[in-house]
Design a protein that fits this description.
Structural class of chain B: alpha+beta
Strand order of the largest sheet of chain A: 8-7-6-9-10-11-12-13-14
CATH class of the largest domain in chain B: Alpha Beta
CATH topology of one domain in chain A: Rossmann fold
CATH architecture of one domain in chain A: 3-Layer(aba) Sandwich
Keywords (chain A): Cell cycle, Cell division, Cell inner membrane, Cell membrane, Membrane, Transmembrane, Transmembrane helix
Distance between the termini of chain B: 31 Å
Strand content of chain A: 15-25%
Number of strands of chain B: 18
Number of helices of chain A: 8
Shape of chain B: globular
Membrane topology (chain A): Single-pass type II membrane protein
Largest sheet of chain A: 9 strands, mixed
Largest sheet of chain B: 5 strands, mixed
InterPro entries (chain A): Cell_div_FtsQ/DivIB_C (IPR005548), FtsQ (IPR026579), FtsQ_C_sf (IPR045335), POTRA (IPR034746)
Order of helices and strands of chain A: HHHEEHEHEEEEEEHEEEHEEH
Pfam families (chain A): FtsQ_DivIB_C
CATH class of one domain in chain A: Alpha Beta
Largest interface: A-B, 14 and 16 residues
Family (chain A): Belongs to the FtsQ/DivIB family. FtsQ subfamily.
Radius of gyration of chain B: 23 Å
Number of domains of chain B: 3
Number of strands of chain A: 14
Radius of gyration of chain A: 44 Å
CATH architecture of the largest domain in chain B: 2-Layer Sandwich
Oligomer: heterodimer
CATH superfamily of the largest domain in chain B: ATPase, nucleotide binding domain
CATH topology of the largest domain in chain B: Nucleotidyltransferase, domain 5
Distance between the termini of chain A: 183 Å
Chain lengths: ~290, ~450
């Protein structure tokens, strides 16, 4: 039976306010703002507030560094020793001196590129490859420069490779008697040309003292007994071959000459030694006397 | 006239906006229930249109994504008589449908059954300037129609061109670009009471919704319950609603007549309530569970416990036979059908080629109604259920939802109405800016 004064039946209709709120909630922009924008903003605010304190920031930085350290110092990443391959003993010693690493060391702390640059900055090293080999070995593969000539300068004797780079200094010529000697300013820049001339001068090797760069443009071949062959700027090898041919035919260099000047290949000139000139004058005088007589 | 014209054009613009946004709500404001469906437009490219006039208002494939029904309050005879209550009921339905669709709807298309619809047939005729029919000629022919004096306080709800004739060829669907000398147009004009319409508009405005269209529920029930050949060959759809019974007659896929009888299922319930002295809610339950209109010998023996809440034991233990119930219901249903018969006769329904009658609406679920209807209306009668719309929940597929489903179809591809056509150039003011714009658009 129906009770008098009981609560009125529930009205299923939403109030105007809740109707509007529901419609607002169903609006995509509003919904996205509430569901994504506000949480993001709150989180950003919280993080900002948390990091505002210098101590906290430092603690976090330290913890991060600690964690990083612990990974880096695992035995898998530690380098125990250094191996230098392809270098002669003095060069290897020099490399070891140049790369002063305090083993064991984590591979994260090594700057392989810097090590390589440092090794390559050594003059006897043409090229170097630096790598960390399995087993905790820092391997340095070295490609050494090969000296081809001895360059005599005011400061002493220097070994030079074919690109003109300095390899090392030596104390005495006899240390590397097998290499030709060049001298003169700028001689190191034209080592290849010097070597070609050296090759061409095969028969003269026994008499040759060395090559002299003149005026930074052309070569002189210096022989013993104070003889000099002055080569032209252009095609010095061909000119030298002509001189050698002359020598073979007439034993030119065996005579008392001081200079064979072939700077102008069409007009080779000879300069006789002082004694020879006097001798010649004497002979001419005799001949003249005889003629006048 | 122009005022209404502008109103309807505004609603068309709203509908365009809703199509761009992709969702629209439809609202069937009935006497017994308010149904709200939320539609999602799939875009015009997904629409498989049939033959006939290409719509000027834009068409689209649709899908129902939200549906809600609530008991109607404050509506009698299909008209609003308590605004606050109706507003609450609309809010309830819209809230639930939005919740199901999980989308906010701002545009709504509404239909209602009451407001005393009245049909007029208009015709107009113009000479063509050049021999080909242009859009302007159609507009001129439509504006040449003599609008009858439908009285103050009335509003045009539908004005659909139903027929075009060029010279002596009649029955054209689309006269554009055809050759002839004279163009005639027939318009079916449906007017309703202005006050009821403005009440409904006000209610919808109060719910923060924009009205994107209005339709008569008799018309939209016909759209959904009649199959295509019935619409083509001439048939009547009778929408037996709660407070009013809508009648719409279709021919050549156009509504040519509409009317309503202000008696409906609620009157049957009231009769039961009065006759058996029980509350209305109980009467409604008994009507739906045991109701019928054709009595058989079996019904004398089938006793229905009718109950009551008065506290008087004798009174609360009463029983009636089903035959008695039928005896109460039948006269009222007969009255409705006879009224319908009168309206159909007045409209000249017996002149139509195929006089099919389709009963739909919640009231058509009364057992034995088809038999009674064919006896009263004397025609081939069938019970109609609304056609299927994609996504419609099972609960909303009954004949009671013929109006709501029809409104979905109306929202998806409305028929062209007067206001969809061009405004004839000579009705523009002489120095109007619009006139310049129109001239440029036509000539460039």
């Amino acid at each position: 039976m129906r009770q008098v004064g009981s609560a009125p039946p529930r009205d299923p209709a939403p109030s105007r306010l809740s109707y509007r709120m529901q419609r607002l909630w169903l609006t995509p922009v509003y919904r996205r703002a509430v569901r994504t924008g506000i949480p993001l903003a709150v989180m950003a605010l919280a993080v900002g507030w948390f990091l505002n304190d210098a101590d906290r920031k430092a603690a976090i930085t330290n913890a991060l560094a600690e964690a990083r350290r612990s990974v880096e110092e695992r035995p898998e990443f530690m380098v125990q020793m250094m191996a230098v391959d392809g270098a002669t003993a003095p060069v290897a010693e020099a490399i070891r001196g140049e790369v002063p690493l305090d083993f064991p060391l984590s591979s994260f702390d090594m700057d392989l590129e810097a090590i390589r640059a440092k090794v390559e900055s050594l003059s006897p090293v043409r090229k170097a490859r630096v790598m960390i080999a399995p087993g905790g070995v820092l391997r340095i593969d070295v490609d050494e420069r090969i000296p081809v000539v001895v360059w005599r300068t005011e400061n002493g004797l220097i070994l030079v490779d074919e690109t003109g780079e300095t390899v090392a200094g030596i104390a005495a010529r006899s240390d590397r008697a097998d290499l030709p000697v060049v001298a003169g300013t700028g001689a190191d820049k034209h080592v290849t040309e010097a070597l070609e001339i050296w090759q061409a001068a095969g028969p003269l090797h026994a008499r040759m003292r060395g090559l002299l760069r003149m005026g930074e443009r052309r070569w002189d071949v210096v022989l013993d007994r104070g003889q000099t062959i002055m080569l032209p700027e252009e095609a010095p090898v061909a000119a030298l071959q002509r001189v050698i041919a002359l020598d073979k035919a007439q034993d030119m260099l065996g005579r008392d000459l001081s200079v064979v000047d072939i700077r102008n290949p069409r007009r080779p000139t000879l300069r006789m030694a002082e004694n020879a000139v006097e001798e010649l004058r004497k002979i001419r005088g005799i001949e003249g006397d005889m003629g006048s007589q | 006239m122009t005022d209404l014209y502008e109103n309807q054009r505004t609603m068309r613009r709203m509908r365009k906006q809703a199509m761009d946004r992709g969702v629209i709500a439809i609202l069937d404001v009935g006497t017994s229930k308010i149904a709200c469906l939320v539609l999602r437009f799939d875009g015009p490219d997904r629409f498989r249109g049939g033959e006939g006039v290409g719509s000027l208002a834009g068409q689209s494939a649709i899908r129902v994504i939200g549906a809600a029904t609530t008991r109607s309050r404050g509506v009698t005879f299909g008209e609003i008589d308590a605004m606050q209550e109706t507003e609450r009921a609309i809010r309830t339905a819209v809230t639930a449908a939005q919740k199901m669709a999980n989308v906010r709807v701002d545009h709504v298309i509404a239909c209602f059954s009451g407001a005393r619809p009245r049909s007029y047939g208009l015709d107009g005729e113009v000479e063509l300037h050049d021999s080909q029919v242009s859009e302007q000629d159609v507009a001129r022919a439509l504006s040449a129609c003599v609008v009858p004096d439908y009285g103050p306080g009335r509003e045009v709800l539908h004005a659909q061109p139903v027929n075009f004739a060029i010279d002596h060829r009649s029955g054209l669907m689309d006269p554009r670009n055809q050759i002839g000398n004279k163009l005639a147009a027939d318009i079916h004009l449906l007017t309703v009471d202005r006050s009821s319409v403005s009440n409904l508009i006000h209610c919808i405005k109060r719910c923060d919704l924009e009205l994107a269209g209005m339709a008569s529920s008799a018309y939209v029930a016909g759209l959904s319950a009649l199959v295509e050949d019935e619409q083509e060959l001439g048939s009547a759809c009778i929408d037996l609603g709660g407070g009013a019974t809508g009648i719409s007659v279709f021919l050549k896929k156009h509504m040519i007549f509409s009317d309503s009888v202000r008696i409906g299922g609620e009157h049957v319930t009231q009769d039961i309530s009065k006759g058996l002295q029980i509350p209305l809610s109980r009467a409604e339950l008994i009507k739906t569970k045991h109701g019928g209109v054709v009595a058989t010998g079996m019904d004398d023996r089938e006793m229905i416990h009718i109950g009551g809440e008065t506290g008087d034991w004798e009174h609360d233990q009463r029983e009636v036979s089903r035959a008695e119930l039928i005896g109460i219901m039948r006269p009222r249903v007969e009255e409705i059908l006879e009224e319908v018969r009168l309206r159909l006769d007045a409209a000249g329904f017996d002149q139509l080629p195929a006089q099919q009658i389709v009963l739909t609406g919640g009231g058509s679920q009364i057992l034995g109604l088809d038999e009674l209807a064919s006896r009263v209306l004397g025609q081939t009668v069938r019970l109609g259920r609304p056609m299927r719309v994609q996504g419609l929940p099972q609960a909303a597929t009954g004949p009671g939802f013929a109006g709501a489903v029809g409104l979905c179809l109306f929202a998806a591809h409305p028929q062209d109405e007067w206001w969809d056509f061009d405004i004839p150039a000579d009705t523009y003011p002489a120095r109007s800016y619009k006139r310049i714009v129109k001239w440029i658009r036509d000539n460039w």
